[in-house]
Amino acid sequence: MALKIRLARAGSKKRPYYHVVVADVRSPRDGRFIEQLGSWNPMLGKDEKRVALNEERIRHWLANGALPTDRVARFLDEAGITKREARSNPEKAKPGKKAQERVAAAKAAEEAAAAKAAEAAAPAEEAAS
């Protein structure tokens, strides 16, 4: 049985609250779980205690082969329980296809305007010389 330490959503509409649970990977996100290991309240401010974890039980489940999801791995790294490698995805920072097309069109229009201004300035320079 493959186990994951993941988030299960609770709370009402537009007021999220998550439980950190260990569950079988085949069970649904908010469905059956084995044990609740903590909670995360993203509605609290950054300076408040947003994440509460039962470190002893998390270490137990990690030792038994449970794998944390990416978000939970961030919490565990902040708590000093596990180490999470930094990820690098330079493609994610790029704008979408349409935005890239708009930037290219604006750049081409700017270059055309600069070329036209240079052509208009060339006869004026010849007359001045």
Kindly identify the CATH topology of the largest domain.
Answer: S16 Ribosomal Protein, Chain: A
Q: How many domains is the backbone divided into?
A: 2
Structural class: alpha+beta
Shape: rod-shaped
CATH superfamily placement of the largest domain: Ribosomal protein S16
**What fraction of residues sit in β-strands?**
15-25%
List the strand order in the largest sheet: 4-3-2-1-5
Please report the total strand number as a whole number.
5
Cα distance, first to last residue?
Answer: 86 Å
What is the succession of H and E elements?
Answer: EEEEHEHH
Alpha carbon gyration radius: 27 Å
CATH architecture of the largest domain: 2-Layer Sandwich
List keywords for this structure.
S16 Ribosomal Protein, Chain: A, 2 domains, 40% helix, alpha+beta
Describe this structure in words.
This protein is of the alpha+beta class. It has two domains: 3-79, 2-Layer Sandwich (S16 Ribosomal Protein, Chain: A), CATH 3.30.1320.10; 93-128. It is built from three helices and five strands. Strand 1 and strand 2 (15-24) form a beta hairpin. The radius of gyration is 27 Å and the shape is rod-shaped.
Helix and strand topology:
Layout: E1 3-12, E2 15-24, E3 35-40, E4 51-53, H1 55-63, E5 67-68, H2 70-79, H3 97-128
Task: Describe this structure in a few short sentences.
The chain has 129 residues and is α+β, with helices and mostly antiparallel strands. The protein has helices at 55-63, 70-79, 97-128; strands at residues 3-12, 15-24, 35-40, 51-53, 67-68. The protein has 2 domains: 3-79, Ribosomal protein S16 (S16 Ribosomal Protein, Chain: A), CATH 3.30.1320.10; 93-128.
